[in-house]
């Protein structure tokens, strides 16, 4: 369906009109109070004005039920005020105060108020729709009857994320409303300069959903369009796209003089603002007297002023707040990456075992976990049985057992996969998202680094993103399907990084990740799929706690610290050197974040020599961090310089001979160990 700009609901009731007016007044006076504080020097902060947006926010939010969910953006003051955000907490948050919703950690770009249906806010243009899909997926799965409205600006429609999200929402028939607040400017660029599409809602048809364009200065028109989309979503008919067209009356940010605008047009728009126009219409239609509207405005302004004044008076957060809420840390406030979250019951090494490969062990673990916990859902490309159960058959048979609503084949869209997993985790599910190759981490890194890893911190510890991202480091596939990016992941606070070397550890570590309340990147090695990781796996379920390294072989002359495929290379090197009387201790980190620094130091303190090894690029790799830590802590204990064995500073080549030269193995380890003996 599509309507022309200007359509509005006929004969609205007085109560309905006044409800819209009250919300518009709240948005108007909220924006005005913030800008006044910034102009006077009462407050200092980044702020993105919403003058001119009042009708869009009021109409859209009034169309939602209290339990319906909102995902909005950094320019979200109008949306969150109209949705009913806790005012003192909101103002304190955007000012960076201790009394803020997230204790000042998030600011305007991270408003989270689940008590009032504000599910998430993002400062990344266009990223919200991906997360909204996941929230809607959880609502549909749990039959909550909730609708998710995701609000974004017209400029966001140039971002691929929005198109990915629209395609996925339509494909899965999700109860999502894509609400585009077209304020005529993509930051500082006019619409005709970034797209040839005159009506952005026309794009909806390409994704199999209805689109409508309405007058964003008319709250009745906005309400009517959004209410229709809400009814459609709630009845199981899927997503809709609503474009509300208005004009932003202030700059992109506070202090932006809008020199890029046609000044005559801007002056004309400012002379007829939506709030004033709607007020005059109510009086002209005999809905309410001017004095009564003054009373409403005075009441709203007083409420806004009291909340803002209290927020200004709130002290800033204590510096100790800085390191809290990076990780769950089992309820503690520790956030450092060294053993920040060791948890679980260690494996029973004396119980019955069965011989398994890495693929079998991971499959069995997922199967058992899904049988035990129906909040676990899998998302990924080709992971369902109609598609073959994944390229490496890790998920084969699971969709037949648990249904395609729990094992979801996704479009080829890694950002959508991770975004949906984040949203689903915010809404109470425990998703396992598969990225077919680790190289594709780069495609989804915004969702991983800017969203999943920051949920706990930006929410002030009120929630986490309990999801697992399974990915695999390839081989024999060239420079874009064989890379290892664990250093990149380790450099992202809030993300746990796990890399097993054996089938037993894979099962135990995956169980730990599935139970963890923080996002976990679970890395698998393609090389270990084909026999290298095979071994005895406990028959009973077991957990390998995150943050606990394992000494795979005891030794006294030199310590090799490594993980993944290189554990097997280290054991091979140890066997070769044992023939010459050299005793090598092999420490398998298993978890890179949290990192078991204590186990590394204990081993090196005993042997006094260290070789750090990994197959990824050596320059700025994890080995550098480990070497620096050991060098600092055990400077007087070391008998020889620390050695690093790692991949070359090159892309991973396709030719087998070049790949063999690129990636280290037992020979390089033997050479490094002999060098320091």
Q: What is the gist of this entry?
A:
The chain is α/β, with parallel strands linked by helices and 677 residues long. Helices cover 39% and strands 16% of the residues.
Q: If you had to describe this structure to a student in words, what would you say it looks like?
A:
The protein has 677 residues and is an alpha/beta fold. It has 3 domains: 14-313, 3-Layer(aba) Sandwich (Rossmann fold); 355-538, 3-Layer(aba) Sandwich (Rossmann fold); 551-676, 3-Layer(aba) Sandwich (Rossmann fold), CATH 3.40.50.920. Helices cover 39% and strands 16% of the residues. The chain has 23 helices and 22 strands. A 7-stranded mixed beta sheet has the order 11-10-12-13-15-14-20, with helices on both faces. A 6-stranded parallel beta sheet has the order 2-1-3-4-8-7, sandwiched between helices. Strands 17-19-18-21-22 form a 5-stranded mixed beta sheet, with helices on both faces. Helix 5 runs parallel beside helix 6. The longest helix has 27 residues, at 14-40. The protein is elongated and about 100 Å long. The model is unreliable at 1-11, 330-335 and 339-348 (pLDDT under 50).
